[in-house]
Design a protein that fits this description.
The complex is a heterodimer of chains A (453) and B (460). Chain A is an alpha+beta fold and 453 residues long. Helix content of chain A is 43%, strand content 17%. Chain A folds into two domains: 33-233, Metalloenzyme, LuxS/M16 peptidase-like (Cytochrome Bc1 Complex, Chain A, domain 1, 2-Layer Sandwich), CATH 3.30.830; 256-446, Cytochrome Bc1 Complex, Chain A, domain 1 (2-Layer Sandwich). Chain B has helices at 2-14, 76-83, 93-102, 127-140, 145-162, 166-179, 191-195, 199-209, 226-237, 287-298, 304-312, 343-359, 364-381, 385-397, 403-413, 417-427, 441-449, and strands spanning 35-38, 44-49, 55-62, 106-111, 116-123, 215-221, 259-264, 271-278, 316-325, 330-338, 434-439, 454-458. In chain B, α10 (287-298) crosses α16 (417-427), α12 (343-359) packs across α16 and α13 packs antiparallel against α15. The chains are: A alpha+beta (453), B alpha+beta (460).
């Protein structure tokens, strides 16, 4: 089934049999401008709303040593004005037209989006094209945004329990390649060191039409949207394709352990991680199904065994690429991470050993047909729910184009997950959850000052 | 779609990219058709059939929030919410979790100040099974002793975690200063009051408040037609015994007065500032001028607080204002987090922006921009079934009619600058604000004292 051949206005989404062989049909078409900009249009009239989602193939893993946090700082600069949309206008034009907007920096990409009432689409396309063409790069804007980012760091990292441990110290233990291990928020020192020249170079290198994917989803007429895109983005020039960063990680051959004392945390937590599989490999699908069996909701194995059973832990969350990614944007090299918040009366080592006991069970016996069916149903309904919003449809189509070159995976990947067998799950448990590949990072509340006296 | 063609042509004729495109005005918004029905036992049902997605979204909301918690048993409503799925007369906790997973359904229960709401969704083929589980948990929850014990144990840790966050400490204090003896003063329970809750408290709460006439059942999406849906509802809910609906407890809230509190959080890397004024509910005349004014002050990235405190002064990453409506009243807050060195200018700046709302009329450009912002946000919020379901459930819990949704866009559009100025004078000025500052008291108390007499408290 080729989704691009579907009549465009027919089916928003159809499931032939809600709990049988589910088939998703998100209608879309894909094309490329002569300057290399990849465009995906996904029309449906479910709600009078449209999302413009523009993603660039650059993220925090593209940063150079000494410039940690730069991709994110640059993302802030994208809201500081361009030739025809002076500072403040981007926010104001979108919001005063009834829309909302944001941008975010990820390990492997940086995205910008606007969701608006459908008849305001042109506003978002025009703004995105203007800043791709002519970003206003000034020292004043840069200095101002350095302060905003430092303040963001104080707010969301330095002043939060667990945050510094999770975004800085844990990756430094689990990864050996700086490209993978440094934080995306960056250090104050590196932020201070960034220059206007760095910003210009980064813009020229990465913010080119041929390094971006533009997805428009929602209540649109494709022929009219194509005209607008050609007019606004057509004149942009392609740039030499940027070099992909070297993300190679040496194979982990020894378990790694660290205890981190967190002055702001009041409840202990422990992270257990293992290097994950190659994106889109059979193991990637199998490990994702294993993750649902292990941690997907209240019926999952770890929840039943450790939250309800031994009561050692208060909560558990896990996935490929945690905490920045989900399976949808996980890219190797990366980690499968399990995060337990645990009972202070219990030792972190006991939590890890209970977890290993559950892993051992997965290695010994295949999951039951019933359990696997549950995991499949969870995955199916989660996907259907998420596709209600134009933002989520545009997001996944664009990411699957950027990361896989195949936006049609949105419609077809479910089959890959659903065909995973109990034996494959047993096999990935044995292959990936190996002692020598394990990293354990225990975050314990630092004693309070009064306690020391 | 005629309008769309018009602007495409206009842009093409201009043939230049230096001018922003002209777009047609926002379309009037039409709510999906919502049918209101009632079962014989008083259960109100709201149905919005929409077959475009094979999904059904459910809300079963009760007027049974934390305001009903008895003295010394703060946390009763949230404990009922957290234990509804942990066992019924015929299913234990694990069976409920597994049955939900078998049908790929979500079912969650939450409580806030006014209401307790069961939220669920499921692929349409399994709608009947979700209804069955929903009916069982709200009618037959059995609150097993071992589940109560586990909940208390884990809740104590969760509360410690929540109170390790500065924003929680700020919100908690603002609520208690604003609402005093009114139950809306409760933000989070103490571990001791959670511990004091017994199984008979939980059963009593269920029997008194989780009753049909005190509830609304909202169903949106691929439901099987009105006739069949109502038959399914009668089969599962009609035998639910009707009971009198209790009046929500109330209490005296203090008069607005300037109050400065510092919450000492040693080791804080920054300082949270949060102001508060008690306001009105959705049905009172000041409500729409107030939410429009609040958005001009601090809603979104074109608001005064964002543009001035963040973009111009670089004091903060976040600087915003919000209005939280309750059933009986509401409150408005301005919130920012800054580094200790700029605390004094940031507080001055924040207060100046609040006071300016009362001192000068907003400009017509600001006003028209923010009306579009609010109305667009409202329409986009209804893009998913859950968005509409949440609105409908919240309205019923707040005692507001469906017309509130229908009239929202028009009433936002009708707000005038003089109305905003008048409500700002009543609810936004710094002279009678509750002001809570959370940070390392050793570093910041002296600065805060420049703004008046300060009460310093330890973080709980």
């Amino acid at each position: 089934m080729n989704p691009m051949k579907l009549p465009l206005y027919l089916a928003f989404l159809s499931l032939l049999s809600p709990l049988g062989a589910a088939e998703l049909n998100i209608a879309f078409e894909k094309y490329k401008l002569p300057n290399g900009l990849r465009v995906i249009l996904a029309p449906d009239s479910a709600a009078p709303v449209v999302t413009v989602y523009l993603v660039y193939g650059v993220g925090s893993r593209s940063e150079e040593k000494g410039r940690s946090g730069f991709a994110h700082l640059f993302e802030h600069m994208m809201f500081q004005g361009s030739a025809n949309a002076p500072k403040g206008m981007h926010f104001q034009m979108v919001e005063s037209n009834g829309g909302n907007l944001n941008g975010s920096t990820h390990p492997d990409y940086t995205d910008y989006y606007e969701t608006l009432p459908a008849n305001k689409l042109a506003v978002a396309l025009w703004l995105e094209a203007d800043r791709m063409r002519s970003l206003a790069i000034t020292k004043e804007n840069l200095d101002n945004q350095k302060e905003a980012v430092k303040q963001e760091r104080r707010l969301s990292v330095d002043n939060q329990p667990y945050a510094k441990a999770i975004v800085e110290d844990f990756p430094a233990l689990a990864f050996r390649n700086w490209s993978n291990s440094h934080s995306s928020i960056g250090s104050f020192e590196d932020l201070n060191a960034a220059t206007v020249q760095d910003v210009s170079k980064f813009f020229a290198t990465y913010y080119a039409p041929n390094n971006a994917v533009l997805a428009v989803a929602g209540d649109i007429k494709p022929a009219e949207v194509k005209k607008l895109i050609a007019e606004y983005f057509g004149g942009l020039k392609a740039q030499p394709q940027p070099k992909a960063p070297d993300l190679t990680e040496p194979e982990q051959k020894e378990a790694r352990r660290e205890v981190y004392r967190d002055a702001l945390a009041r409840v202990p937590a422990v992270l257990v991680s293992y290097p994950g599989p190659k994106r889109r490999s059979p193991d990637y699908y199998a490990l994702t199904m294993l993750d649902i069996v292990l941690t997907g909701g209240d019926s999952s194995r770890l929840y039943q065994a450790m939250v309800k059973g031994t009561q050692s832990v208060l909560g558990v969350e896990a996935n490929l690429g945690w905490p920045y990614q989900q399976f949808s944007d996980y890219k190797d090299p990366g980690l499968y991470v399990v995060n337990f918040t645990y009972n202070p009366a219990v030792d972190g080592k006991k939590v890890v050993s209970e977890f290993e006991g559950e892993i051992e069970k997965l290695k010994q016996a295949p999951v039951s047909a019933k359990e696997l069916e549950r995991a499949r149903n969870t995955l199916r309904s989660t996907r259907v729910r998420s596709l209600q919003s134009s933002m989520s449809r545009a997001n996944l189509l664009a990411l699957y184009e950027l990361l896989d070159g195949k936006p049609e995976l949105l419609n077809t990947e479910l089959e890959e997950f659903l065909k995973v067998t109990p034996e494959q799950i047993r096999a990935v448990a044995a292959k990936y959850f190996v002692g020598a590949r394990q990293t354990v990072f225990d975050i314990v509340p630092a004693p309070k000052k009064e306690d020391k006296k | 779609m005629k309008a769309l063609i018009v602007f495409v042509t206009a842009a093409a004729l201009l043939g230049q990219q230096s001018k922003p495109p002209e777009t047609p005005p926002l379309q009037p918004f039409k709510l999906p058709q919502i049918k209101e029905r009632k079962l014989g036992n008083g259960l109100t049902v709201l149905l919005a059939e929409d077959q475009r997605i094979p999904l059904v979204t459910l809300r079963l909301a009760f007027v049974a929030g934390s305001r009903f918690d008895p003295e010394g048993k703060s946390g009763l409503s949230e404990t009922v919410a957290s234990l509804l799925k942990e066992g019924t007369a015929s299913r234990n906790s694990r069976q409920i979790a597994e049955e939900l997973a078998d049908i790929g359904a979500n079912l969650d229960v939450n409580s806030n100040a006014d209401g307790l709401t069961v939220s669920g969704n499921v692929l349409s083929g399994q709608f009947a099974a979700l209804l069955e589980l929903t009916s069982d948990v709200v009618r037959n929850a059995s609150f097993p002793e071992d589940e109560i014990k586990l909940r208390k144990q884990n809740r104590a840790q969760e509360l410690a975690f929540q109170r390790s966050q500065s924003s929680t400490l700020a919100s908690e204090k603002v609520r208690s200063v604003l609402f005093g003896a009114h139950p809306y003063s409760r933000y989070l329970p103490s571990p001791a009051s959670v511990n004091a809750i017994t199984r008979s408290d939980l059963m009593g709460f269920r029997d008194r408040l989780l009753t049909p006439a005190n509830a609304v059942l909202v169903l949106i999406g691929a439901i099987p037609g009105e006739q069949q849906t109502m038959d399914m509802l009668r089969a599962r809910f009609e035998s639910w015994t009707n009971k009198p609906v209790p009046t929500p407890p109330s209490g005296e809230a203090p008069k607005a007065a300037r109050k400065l509190v510092v919450i000492d959080r040693p080791g804080s890397a920054q300082v949270d500032i949060m102001t508060g004024h008690a306001t009105v509910n959705r049905l009172q005349a000041d409500y729409f001028p107030l939410i429009v004014g609040t958005a001009i002050l601090g809603g979104g990235a074109s608001s005064r607080l964002f543009l001035n405190l963040r973009e111009r002064d670089g004091f903060a990453y976040q600087a915003n204002a919000m209005h939280v409506p309750f059933r009986d009243t509401g409150y408005v807050s301005a919130i920012t987090q800054v580094r200790p060195e700029v605390l004094e200018p940031a507080m001055k700046g924040l207060f100046a922006e609040m006071d300016k709302m009362a001192a000068e009329p907003v400009t017509s450009q600001e006003l028209s921009n923010v009306k579009n912002y609010l109305n667009g946000f409202f329409v986009i919020g209804l893009e998913s079934q859950g968005g509409l379901a949440n609105q409908l459930a919240a309205l019923r819990v707040a005692g507001a009619p469906l017309e509130y949704l229908e009239q929202y866009v028009t009433r936002v559009r009708s707000v005038e600058p003089d109305q905003i100025q008048r409500v700002a004078a009543k609810y936004m000025t710094s002279k009678d604000a509750a002001i809570v500052v959370v940070g390392d008291a050793g570093k910041i108390a002296k600065t805060v004292e420049k703004f008046g007499a300060v009460q310093v408290e330890k973080a709980q």
